[in-house]
């Protein structure tokens, strides 16, 4: 891992100044992944996620430049997060109350800084301080392991 890596935590009301930087990292990390990964759709997704109570972001900077970030939020009661989950699963598994499950929604590192332990550092910094009893992460089927 980089010695000059700086991790910072942010709440939704603290990210307006870096919103464009977040979108830039997203587009860089998804370069070549297809038209689904576009600026307009991601800005809508990010704006929607930031409205969820408990949304939190951890950024990683190297030499002052945003190298990556991770964000997530507690799953609210009535969430659609689990729609599409394949059975069988234990009774009550998909029940949420806004305090049970933390959903790690995005974990992104710019290609130039991938495979240097930054994603692990972001993950650990974001998740380790959460009060929820469990965490979920949605990943693409074709996502290569780090």
UniProtKB/TrEMBL annotation:
Top-rank lineage group of the source organism: Bacteria
InterPro entries: Acyl_CoA_acyltransferase, GNAT_dom
Pfam families the UniProt entry points to: Acetyltransf_1
Molecular-function GO terms, alphabetical: acyltransferase activity, transferring groups other than amino-acyl groups
Domain N-acetyltransferase, first and last residues per copy: 8-146
CDD domains in alphabetical order: NAT_SF
The protein's name in its UniProt record: GCN5 family acetyltransferase
């Amino acid at each position: 891992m980089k010695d000059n890596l700086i991790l910072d935590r942010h709440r939704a009301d603290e990210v307006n100044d870096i919103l464009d930087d977040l979108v830039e990292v997203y587009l860089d990390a998804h370069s070549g992944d297809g038209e689904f990964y576009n600026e307009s759709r991601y800005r809508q997704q990010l704006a929607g996620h930031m409205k969820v109570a408990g949304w939190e972001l951890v950024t990683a900077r190297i030499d002052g430049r945003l190298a990556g970030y991770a964000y997530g939020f507690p799953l609210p009661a009535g969430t659609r997060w689990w729609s599409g989950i394949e059975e069988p699963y234990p009774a009550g598994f998909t029940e949420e109350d806004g305090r049970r499950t933390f959903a790690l929604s995005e974990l992104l590192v710019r290609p130039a800084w991938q495979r240097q332990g930054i994603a692990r550092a972001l993950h650990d910094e974001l998740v380790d301080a959460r009060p929820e009893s469990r965490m979920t992460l949605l990943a693409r089927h074709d996502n290569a392991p780090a």
